[in-house]
Amino acid sequence: MASNSQNLVKKTYSLLAEKRLPWRLSQWLTRRKEEATRNKYDQLVLQTRPYITGQDSPHFEVHVLLGHRHVGMTLWCVKSLLHHSGRKYFVVLHEDGSLTEQDIATLKQHLINVRVVRKTEADELIRETIKHLPNCRDYRFSPKETSDHRGIKYNMHIFALRLFDFNLLSNASKTMVLDCDVLFFAPPLEIMEWAEAPEDRNSLFSIEQYIPKRNSRYEVIGFEKKNPLPTDANAGLLCLDKRAYKLEFIEDWIAKNRELMDKVATFEQRAYNHLVQVKGGSSPLPDSYSFNYTDDQVKATHFAIKELFFKNLERVRSALSQAN
Asked: Taking a C-beta distance cutoff of 8 angstroms, is the pair 245, 169 a contact?
């Protein structure tokens, strides 16, 4: 006779299969499954070979913001870029203050020559650089706690690091703003051509062209293209020519939009869009650089829906394994 606990497990999954679980329990199970998958792939990425950085195109740098929770994701992200590009680009990782010494050791072991910027170091450097700009200073150094749709608390202003630190602490004229939940599945030729052409003073950016379709349990069951198609840049995959980066433009823009600073998590993304629009001459990446939606024609996908990020890791693992 099965034990009571075994019967409970069977009943739970039976209800889940029939879509009859209460919403909160269903979400709890989904989070548990996601965490188990995250832990699995955090270990599997350590079985892939290290990649060398810091040798090709010194005028171009890849910048990523991460914390302790994102070490594995960052390795999958950056390794997929380096693998499919076949390049040894300069990579700079900016931590949110939560990385351990072991985390940093792991990152440096798997991304040889990578530069890791500790938040305490960055705070000191950035504070001095923007001390004469009160609006920039408030955004960068005034934490604002909020919660995501799952109730997980985070500092909304942490994304200011992507706006200030990525550019002010860069040694290059071109910066790739890259979220750690982006995966590359094929050579990103458009980005490579841009990155390796110092004379090209324009910028490239991805857009959020697809919206997910969900069922009553909030599960993603498909996608549809937005109509009309958005024109604003998504800062999760943004190739910025730093000659478009002007602190005085950011200072003035924040002054005019301060009411949004503590309300909109994508405030930094809006600031980037302002810079891109003021500079002009920039263009969106093609549909093969997608947002959440992916297929075998997509070169890179920004998976804001983390379930989809982990679901597609086998495609990356297969490619990296062939290179071992």
From this structure: no
Contact between 233 and 278 (Cβ < 8 Å) = no
- List average pLDDT for each run of 10 residues in the chain, which is 324 residues long: 50 53 67 88 97 98 97 98 98 98 98 98 98 98 79 85 98 97 98 96 94 84 91 96 94 98 95 94 94 96 95 96 76
Q: Is the peptide bond before 134 cis (omega within 30 degrees of 0)?
A: no
Helix or strand (DSSP H, E) at 299: none
CA nearest 62: which of 177, 156, 192, 169? 177
Contact criterion met (CB below 8 Å) for 211 and 270? no
- Round to whole Å and give the CA distance between 202 and 10: 57
**Which token pair is 323?**
């290179």
Rounded CA separation 48/110 (Å): 8
Judge whether 271 and 258 are in contact, CB under 8 Å. Answer: no
- The structure tokens listed for 120 are 């305490």
Q: Would the CA dihedral through 253, 159, 45, 149 be positive or negative?
A: negative
DSSP letters, 79-109, are HHHHHHHT--EEEEEEE-S---HHHHHHHHH
Q: Which two tokens stand for residue 65?
A: 């913001």
Q: Are 281 and 202 in contact (CB under 8 A)?
A: yes
Extract long-range pairs of 266-270: CB within 8 Å, 24+ residues apart: 266/159, 266/235, 267/139, 267/156, 267/159, 268/159, 268/160, 268/162, 268/163, 268/235, 269/159, 269/232, 269/233, 269/234, 269/235
Whole-model pTM: value is: 0.90
